[in-house]
Amino acid sequence: MGLSNSKVLTFMNENALINDVSLRFGVIGAGQKGNKDADIFAGYTYANGKQIYPSLAVNFSKNDMLHLKNIPVEDRIHFEDFRGAARTPSLVVENFDPQLNPNADKMRNQLIEAMERKFMDVDHLFICAGAGGGFGTGFISLVLSLIKEQFFPVPITLLLSSPFDDFTEMSNAILLLAEIKEFIELQNELFSPGQEKPLGSVILTDNKKLFNDFTTKKENRLNSSTLISWKDEGNDAIISTIHEANLIPANFGSDNSTYDPSDFIKIVQLSGGFLSIHKASIEAPYESNTLNSKMRNSIQLGYFSCGHDYETATMYGGFVLRPSSASIFKDVKTEQTIKQVISEFNDTAQGKYGDPIWFDEYAVVYTIFSGMTLPSRVVEMTIEYDEMLEKQKQVKNKDIELNISGVMESVKQSTFNPYQKRGANKFGGGASGGFGGSVFNRKQENQIEEEVASTTEEISEPNNRFGSNSDDTKPTNVWNKIQNRK
């Protein structure tokens, strides 16, 4: 039996109800956070035991991938000679750039070969990462560039999480999300609203909210000694909800209003903006005011809540997974309640709501908004970052007066004086020789590249499904229209 990391999935797996999906997608997990997300997706199976989502973990650090449970070693892509990215996204971007690294084509081909092996039968890719880390952040930035090279033959959804308590990670995340915002704006200029987008959607979750939510849950539990990992439980809640939203349209029909798999595909692939999925469980007797409050709370306070501006959504969708005996969901008042809640958040978006039937004794409401602009949480994060930066400046500006006259007198009386200037150093040459070149001195890159380029073999590029190698069968690259834009 496949992974059951939610109550809904436990029921579905125990009753062998999972036989199809709406959208066949593969998963790439980049960096430690992304690796964990991909590992969860990799654990989901059909009723016959076959894996649903082919998954790869990619990283500069082997150790980040040691404890994955569902992704085998051959699907953990580590790039040779790297031992992590040290929260420095530029290391990833630059090392995949053929103009800066003579081995970049070799690294790209390593990625292409793995993708060709795993993703030949997928129609979409989810790429997961923590926005803020080194490899994950750099890889997502790289993905945006590769999309413009037509590297991916299928649309992409980015699944990202935002940091909240680390200065460097917040800086990385803010820059990445600004880059994504600019990418979406350019994409909107090139593709019409009803057209499939290369970047189909972006899902952003807020680690600060997840941390606070699970802290409150632990405080409210009767047995407060029960261990809660907010990261593990948060990952399960987010990914299981995405999985359920993909499963339900393909496995459950309705005698009233069906939400088709094509409806789900449309909302994931066509909007090109930020997407959120909200879930709420409802027990009988399913009163309208309960449905109203549960839906509203799931949208405003659920795990996908991230300061989204729902008024900017271009599409909405969703369904109530209901017991066959709950005919109240066919009632006009119930339908009116659902439409009322949707219109409170967005009264212009186009979409559809269904009511598929299952055989458990409670109902589950799923509401999806897509095509939204950058969430306000990112703006809040920039304010928090500026406040942290100001505090750092204040701390550094504190000056402590120190009277060292007595200490210096003692030193002068000693035959050993560490403050005396000495002659030539025994190690590392003379004192006047300077500190030497730094590995971070990028002014040396062009010189180094010229020295090693002559010894680097040219790597042949096979005609693959993935990769940006050109062939006559590929359509004209629309991104060339903005290539020279500053």
Automatic annotation (TrEMBL):
<feature type="transmembrane region" description="Helical">
    <location>
        <begin position="125"/>
        <end position="147"/>
    </location>
</feature>
<keyword id="KW-0614">Plasmid</keyword>
<feature type="compositionally biased region" description="Polar residues">
    <location>
        <begin position="453"/>
        <end position="486"/>
    </location>
</feature>
<protein>
    <submittedName>
        <fullName>Cell division protein FtsZ</fullName>
    </submittedName>
</protein>
<dbReference type="Pfam" id="PF22453">
    <property type="entry name" value="TubZ-like_C"/>
</dbReference>
<keyword id="KW-0472">Membrane</keyword>
<feature type="region of interest" description="Disordered">
    <location>
        <begin position="442"/>
        <end position="486"/>
    </location>
</feature>
<keyword id="KW-0132">Cell division</keyword>
<dbReference type="GO" id="GO:0051301">
    <property type="term" value="P:cell division"/>
</dbReference>
<feature type="domain" description="Tubulin/FtsZ GTPase">
    <location>
        <begin position="106"/>
        <end position="184"/>
    </location>
</feature>
<dbReference type="Pfam" id="PF00091">
    <property type="entry name" value="Tubulin"/>
</dbReference>
<dbReference type="InterPro" id="IPR003008">
    <property type="entry name" value="Tubulin_FtsZ_GTPase"/>
</dbReference>
<keyword id="KW-0131">Cell cycle</keyword>
<feature type="domain" description="Tubulin-like protein TubZ-like C-terminal">
    <location>
        <begin position="244"/>
        <end position="378"/>
    </location>
</feature>
<dbReference type="InterPro" id="IPR036525">
    <property type="entry name" value="Tubulin/FtsZ_GTPase_sf"/>
</dbReference>
<keyword id="KW-1133">Transmembrane helix</keyword>
<keyword id="KW-0812">Transmembrane</keyword>
<dbReference type="InterPro" id="IPR054719">
    <property type="entry name" value="TubZ-like_C"/>
</dbReference>
